[in-house]
Amino acid sequence: MSDISQKFEYFKRDLSWLSFNYRVLLEAEDDSLPIFERIKFLSIYSSNLEEFYEIRVAGHMGVAMKRRISEAEDSALAEATLAEITAEVNRQQYEYHRIFYEMIIPELFRNRIFLYHDSCLKTFHEDFVREFFTRDIFPFLSPVMIRPGEIRTFIRDRRLYLVVRMRKKDADDTFQYAIMKIPFSKVPRFIKLPEQDGVYYIMFIDDVIRANLGWLFPAYTIDSCYSIKLSRDADIELDDLRENDIVADMRQKLRERKNGYPSRVMYDSAMPADFLNFICEAFDFTEDHLVAGARYMNLADLRHLPNPIGEELEAKLPYPMRIPLLERASSVMDVVNERDVLLHFPYQSFDYLIRILKEAATDPNVVGIKITQYRVAEHSEVINQLIAASRNGKDVRVYVEIKARFDEENNMFTAEQMEQAGIHIIYSNVRLKVHAKIAHISRCLPLSDIACISTGNFNEKTAGIYSDIAMLTSNAILTSDVAATFAYLDNLSAESIRPVFKKLLVARCNMVDELRRMIMREANNALAGRRAHIVLKMNGLHDKEMIDMLYVAGQAGVRVDLIVRGICCLMPGQSFSPNISVTRIVDMYLEHARIWYFYNSGNDEIFISSADWMHRNLNRRIEAASPILDPVLKQEIRRILNLQLQDNVKACVIDEHMNNVRKTKTFPALRSQTAVYEYLKSRV
Prior knowledge:
Blueprint: H1 13-27, H2 35-64, H3 75-110, E1 113-115, H4 126-137, E2 144-146, E3 160-168, E4 175-181, E5 190-196, E6 199-204, H5 205-210, H6 213-216, E7 220-232, H7 246-257, E8 262-268, H8 273-283, E9 290-293, H9 324-328, H10 332-338, E10 341-345, H11 351-362, E11 366-373, H12 381-391, E12 395-400, H13 408-420, E13 424-427, E14 433-434, E15 437-443, E16 450-454, E17 466-473, H14 476-490, E18 505-506, H15 511-527, E19 533-538, H16 544-556, E20 559-564, E21 580-585, E22 590-591, E23 594-598, E24 605-609, H17 615-619, E25 621-622, E26 624-627, H18 631-646, E27 651-654, E28 660-662, H19 672-683
Parallel strand pairs: 1-6, 8-9, 11-12, 12-13, 14-25, 17-22, 19-20, 20-21
Antiparallel strand pairs: 2-4, 3-4, 3-7, 5-6, 7-8, 10-17, 11-15, 15-16, 16-17, 18-26, 19-23, 21-27, 23-24, 24-26, 27-28
């Protein structure tokens, strides 16, 4: 068998992520989808790219400009990576605008929706636009004159600005410049104009302002006006957080985030070079910051584009199905006493998880509830049930991760609400994120405890759009392991002796060792001439040690099928990666479940987990993976994995060049998310 110390190769993490985001963009090109579903993917692409610049690109820029120290790269490597990122983003931006202008806007018009773009205002709308501007927009505009060496305004991140060039009337030819932020909370981005001859008209607020610049600068003749948009470094350095005051320190970090260094300055590529140079000099932007855009930016706002026609232009998502076994039962806990239950979100209703918490809140036999919260839903019914349980005298402990990126403020706010209701809040360790999705309901003897192990957050909002699996169990070994995980979380700061788990896999305890063991077992079986098969479904595969193990297994003859939605640094199709395939699925739901399958000579082992195979997840986070023990539930998950591997509609294969290669459509067409829904429906 190949030596694991041999030299392997890997895709670059950031370029792999850009490959994933490009796959998201390709959904907007799919004319089999309703037009507003395609527009949704344009919005998602833009939102994803914004965060990428705020975190990943900002990190590289910090190293390149020697503001940060990184063990992974030096300034030269960071500069090279930034150049590769810029080249790929520029290519994708061209495709984005091609799809938007040549496909989306014409398709909207075919559906009687006219979106003004680069076009003159029609005569019958002039009065409306002028009146709307003076009444609803003008009061919220605050133009600021720009003078070299005299910065009078701070450019916020994620906000859209207009920069204006003009000359004073009856004066010399000297240009004057101004900048103003487009209102984002008081006025919508898209303005509905009066219907005309059965056609619905919509206009960007940007264009409404452009059409009325004379009202803002009556003493000037307008030369030109362009959009700019800034992204800032939003990553938070956690090393200097204090264990005894992590909340106060995090609040300070969040205030500092708003003033982060620029990581991207997007500008309208039609802006003349001398105009752009003036803006760069005035605000101290460098060429490294610049990313060429188009007339319209911040297109994550497309998710707010009005739909005057109705549902026929939108995707019809299947209604989350009810489960007869649980519907007939007077108590979900009674059912879980008898058997393990798998809940598949969003195919099946999230209500059952709410229901078991509601039961626990009032059941006199329930002593306490422990649960992790990584991303908390706003106005969460999960939180409401935990508060009710606390008020009913239960010992409720919630392990809140306040370092969950971009959810820090909401998590802290919700934690304070829970504390006021008497819930004991445990904040995670400064150096570790608690990413495990587990819950434990303690009951009086002789009743068994109940545990929930999930691949996704206990968040009813994301449960409607993320594809996840949660298992409810009263299995004594599993509930004991979950209880031991919570005991471990209680003592993270003490770095106490790590617990021994019988069935559960927990990152930083036994997870990596067990994964190594199971991969090598398949490799040894293949070398012995026995069938060997691994199927791994996850959101990200980056950890080089685990990738090396898969390379070695493939060389030994193990068939390795990977279903990886996002980052995948493993390179298929190489001499060192035989027998390995990588599938990526992007569809109506975000594929979020992590499932690990090992054939094990026919005695298959299947795990569901919160953990991706990223170095951070396996080494710097607390993650949990649970085996599926019930043979019927194993068969259910095997079937779902097979449907996803057979998908020939929404699945792409990642080739040796990191391309998203569409599968050749064969008959019958199989769209796995639709097929999974129908399969689960047939089982109930």
